[in-house]
Amino acid sequence: MSRLSTPELTDIDAKTQGTLDAIAKQFGFAPGMFTTLAANPRVLEIVMGLQGGIAKLLDAKTRHTIALATSRSNDCDYCSALHGYISANLAGMSTEEIELARSGGFTDPKRAAVARFSQQVIETRGQVGDDDIAAVRDAGYTDPEIQAIVTVVVVTLLTNYLNNVNDTVVDIPGAGA
Length: 177
Hints:
It contains nine helices and no strands. The protein is elongated. It starts with 13 loop residues before the first helix and ends in an 11-residue tail after the last helix.
């Protein structure tokens, strides 16, 4: 059971309800995480702004690879399920690609490097080693792209932490949880 309160739909102001309606339209359902965040419309606005901002960084499959690897490293079942759903239904990733992203075991060296680097950023709290930087560069990422990778990791951390604190009930279609 979720630990933070979720507002009643009648208690949500029109602007926030409009945001929730747009989310439901985008995903094809209304993820409970966003309804819970509607208890503090400013937090919902910040999360949505950050999500919109990172949508302009890197390609969709790379962003979702980072989000899946990050969510697995943080033991965030909710985000792992939601990013799995988004990856499959909106980013065109196969079930195998989604599992590889979570584990960092891609056969594609570039995709594997971004997943492993994302996990290293989390495990070292950003204090990655020179070898970690060299590995992601050797895979073909530029320094501006490395900055983008770290940014996607950090935005994913925010939602991981919000959902882990809340213990958000996994309500993602097909998640089986």
